[in-house]
Amino acid sequence: MNKLTMYITVFLMSLLFGCSGGGGENTAAVGVDPTIPASDDPAKDLVSNSDFNFSSSYKLDVDVDISNNTKERAFLSVCSNFTEENGEVKKIDYEDCILRTGLDQGRYQGELKVTNDKVKLVSAIWFYDSVRAPIISVWNKGDNAQSLLFIR
């Protein structure tokens, strides 16, 4: 056995024996109560109005029917990141859409779960086989608005 092999063997054996956990007794504490005393609860002083909604999302029903206007194949995008100028949609970030789906004979019905920070959405209906401009509409949740995105 050459010296290098011998040194590697001794080193590995010292790691094996030196790093083992060993026997020893279990010295876990017995009788310690892990509960937090009520006086240390930081949330105990929180107060909310009885009408406050703790839900982090809301349901949005989507109802699209353009079958009376066209028989062309179409695709629906519902997105939350867009820019408006003077009430007109200028740019839509199609990477940030919460719904992307095809329309079946000009129709789509479904339900979306939308996070509460999304109070304004834009929908775009794109046509596959034409140069026709997309149908763009903006939906605003508002205070008492219906949770329905309705496109005709």
Task: Report on the architecture of this protein.
The protein is mainly β. The protein has a domain at 57-151: Immunoglobulin-like. It has one helix at residues 3-18, and strands at 57-65, 74-79, 82-85, 88-92, 97-102, 107-115, 120-127, 135-140, 148-151. The protein has a 4-stranded antiparallel sheet, with no helix packed on it. The longest helix has 16 residues, at 3-18.
The whole-number mean of residue pLDDT values reads: 81
* CA-atom Rg in angstroms: 31 Å
Kindly report the spatial arrangement of strands forming the biggest sheet. Answer: 5-2-7-8
Proportion in β-strands: 35-45%
* CATH class assignment of one domain: Mainly Beta
Tally of helical segments: 1
- Percent helix range: 10-25%
Overall SS class: mainly beta
**Name of the CATH architecture of one domain:** Sandwich
Number of DSSP-assigned strands = 9
List keywords for this structure.
3-stranded mixed beta sheet; 152 residues; 1 helix; mainly beta; 9 strands; Immunoglobulin-like; 4-stranded antiparallel beta sheet; 11% helix; flat
Task: Write the topology of this structure.
Elements: H1 3-18, E1 57-65, E2 74-79, E3 82-85, E4 88-92, E5 97-102, E6 107-115, E7 120-127, E8 135-140, E9 148-151
Parallel strand pairs: 1-9
Antiparallel strand pairs: 1-6, 2-5, 2-7, 3-4, 7-8
Write a concise synopsis of the structure shown.
By secondary structure, the chain is mostly beta strands.
